[in-house]
Write a structure and sequence with these properties.
single chain, alpha+beta, 5-stranded mixed β-sheet, binds tetrahydrodeoxyuridine
Length: 143
């Protein structure tokens, strides 16, 4: 990813680049059962970017969403501090994360910015804690 311009402050990729990365990686989705290819790009607070796609299974519940693929790749890379997640689905309508992915992301930081995009047009955005208010958060287990 090439980082240019003032939005680069802190070494983080601009939101438009993150959305572009999520749109690009959709090409690698394995979605033969739904035909709904999703891409995700997760930026860490240090500026690293990890991508994921949905990987479906003929045994339908064994499939996994793009967001959790990106999250798993980032955690496997040694990262736990996330700044922005971009998700891109098919069509013109922005594709927001499902409830399971919202919960999986809430494991880390509720201030995560989530950008949802379609194939074209402007993304919409929220903070994760707006998408999943009153989350069952790690503090609930008091560890
Ligand atoms: N999907 C995602 O990858 N992310 C979401 O947040 C919503 C749904 C995938 C799961 C399934 O492979 C396909 O989209 C249709 O639900």
């Amino acid at each position: 990813m090439t980082h240019t311009g003032p939005a680069e402050v802190g070494g983080r990729p601009p939101h438009a680049e993150l959305v572009a990365a999520a749109r690009r990686v959709r090409a690698n989705a394995h979605a033969p059962w739904s035909g709904f290819a999703v891409g995700a790009a997760l930026a860490t607070t240090s500026g690293a970017v990890f991508c994921g796609v949905n990987v479906e299974s003929v045994a339908l519940p064994a499939g996994v969403c793009a967001e959790r693929g990106a999250l798993a790749a980032a955690v496997a890379g040694g990262h736990r501090d996330f700044a922005v997640l971009a998700v891109a689905g098919p069509g013109a309508q922005p594709s927001p994360p499902c409830g399971v992915c919202r919960q999986a992301l809430a494991e880390f930081d509720g201030e995560l910015v989530v950008l949802a995009a379609g194939e074209t047009g402007e993304p919409i955005s929220w903070r994760l804690d707006e998408l999943l208010p009153d989350a069952f958060a790690p503090q609930r287990l008091d560890r």
